[in-house]
Design goal:
Blueprint (H helix, E strand, L loop, with lengths): L17 E4 L9 H10 L5 E6 L11 H8 L12 E6 L4 H9 L4 E4 L7 H10 L3 E6 L8 H4 L5 E5 L13 H16 L4 E5 L7 H7 L3 E4 L1 H4 L4 H12 L1
Parallel strand pairs: 1-8, 2-3, 3-4, 4-5, 5-6, 6-7, 7-8
Helix pairs in contact: 2-3
This protein binds D-xylitol-5-phosphate and zinc ion.
């Protein structure tokens, strides 16, 4: 039996932090340029928010846009920058596979949007992508007990999904702590990403709770100097 209560978690010494700017707050008329600019500014991943106007009350972009941006998602030396697809769609499987074909590196979905979570995980993995599960603010973590060995990433929503620019919901910190303990018990290298309302002045709190990957949309794209914001975030994480 696994005990999730008192496990040690998050030794900062070994932690590799990643910053994943969300294109949701980029200039949609210049997406390729925006991807290149934010990579030059120091982005580790590109966070790609897919909304279907059904699971969430907003509509963004599909696999064709992901595919068009793939060529822009690289560093000056040609190294690929992972595209981190966050699916806010229902149903999940067909679109997840379309994003795998479109060049996504990681694909995360909301377990409450899939009728068969384990099957959705297997179908994404069969396409060669890493898989993440996303937890909304009021969704419990029970499903993790049954699939944690099969995933690469857990994404904690610290806002209700659908829009950029919302305020961070503090209960996400407790949820991050609980997930970090589960990851420690599992022993696998699973990334713990937080998404929503992340700014320079709260990124440290999310890291202290156990997050290692930070999505930021409006905090980065809402400022003229992306590199300055990312540098300030990294400074808070040191
Ligand atoms: C919200 C999206 C987020 C969003 C975050 O549904 O999943 O990725 O872009 O935006 P900010 O950082 O502005 O809260
Ligand atoms: Zn997102």
């Amino acid at each position: 039996m696994r005990v999730f209560g008192d496990q040690p978690f998050n030794t900062h010494a070994a932690m590799i932090y990643r910053i994943a700017p969300s294109l949701l707050s980029a200039d949609f008329a210049r997406l390729g340029e925006e991807v290149r600019a934010v990579i030059t500014a120091g982005a580790d991943w590109i966070h790609f928010d897919v909304m279907d106007n059904h699971y969430v009350p907003n509509l963004t972009f599909g696999p064709m846009v992901c595919s068009a941006l793939r060529a822009h998602a690289q560093q000056a030396n040609g190294a690929r920058v992972p595209i981190d697809v966050h699916l806010m769609v229902q149903p999940v499987d067909a679109l997840a596979e379309a994003f795998a074909d479109a060049g996504a590196d990681l694909i995360s979905f909301h377990p409450d949007a899939s009728s068969h979570v384990h099957r959705s995980i297997q179908r994404i993995r069969a396409k060669g992508c890493q898989v993440g599960l996303v937890f909304n603010p009021a969704v419990s973590l029970d499903v993790l007990d049954w699939v944690i060995d099969d995933i690469d990433l857990v994404l904690v929503m610290s806002v209700n999904p659908g829009f950029g620019g919302q305020s961070f919901i503090d209960s996400a910190l407790r949820k991050i702590e609980a997930i970090r303990r589960r990851i420690a018990v599992c022993g696998k290298d699973i990334r713990l990403e937080v998404d929503g309302g992340i700014k320079v002045d709260n990124i440290r709190r999310a890291a202290d709770a156990g997050a290692d990957t930070f999505v930021a949309g409006s905090a980065i794209f809402g400022q003229p100097d992306y590199a300055a914001v990312i540098a300030q975030m990294r400074a808070r994480l040191e």
